[in-house]
Design brief:
about 15% helix, five-stranded antiparallel beta sheet, elongated, 2 helices, three-stranded antiparallel beta sheet
């Protein structure tokens, strides 16, 4: 009887945590790249210091949970494959050579809050985007947003987008096999 009462109490605590905890996800992503369509990706790309903020990926993270998320950080990666190819089913989304860890806003995202973050595109990333624009390769932009919930548990939410520059509505299409709650923790 005591074991049953403990299990019931533990289930109640777990249910409360699931209902109250923070849930972060990407709700919008965009590209601002003034040179991506004009550069020659086969040549060295030099960005003048006064133009460093002209080329960005802008993402908005939203906390749809009931409590704040703390120490919010994201790790992102570009992955390229040959034009016309798809990621293999067993692809495990490794942190790649163009990966970076960056803070999101103040590091805290309150419940119901949406915060923007910007990733400055370096010459290597600009070259990749230019190759996609010229239909030489396919690029995936993926990563995970990591945070600590009010219960002190480390959480992680994955995200993945395929960059489709000729899409009439949105150049970043979700990777449905990766952007699912089951992939997050």
């Amino acid at each position: 009887m005591a074991d049953e009462a403990k299990r019931s109490a533990d289930n109640a605590v777990e249910t409360a945590e699931l209902r109250l905890r923070a849930y972060l996800g990407v709700v919008d992503i965009g590209l601002q790249c003034l040179v991506c369509t004009t550069v020659d990706p086969t040549k060295d790309i030099v960005i003048q210091p006064e133009h460093i903020l002209d080329n960005l990926i802008i993402m908005h993270f939203h906390n749809g949970g009931g409590t704040p998320a703390y120490n919010v950080r994201a790790r992102d990666t570009f992955w390229e494959i040959g034009f016309g190819q798809r990621l293999p089913k067993e692809f495990n989304y490794p942190d790649g050579p163009l990966s970076d860890l960056f803070p999101i806003g103040s590091g805290t995202v309150n419940q119901g809050q949406t915060v923007p973050t910007q990733l400055v595109l370096d010459p290597q990333m600009i070259s990749l985007i230019a190759r996609v624009e010229k239909r030489k390769v396919v690029a995936f932009y993926y990563g995970h947003v990591d945070y600590v919930d009010v219960f002190g548990k480390q959480r992680s939410t994955p995200y993945c987008f395929e960059y489709l520059p000729n899409s009439p509505s949105d150049p970043f299409a979700n990777c449905p096999e990766h952007n699912t709650p089951a992939r997050g923790q």
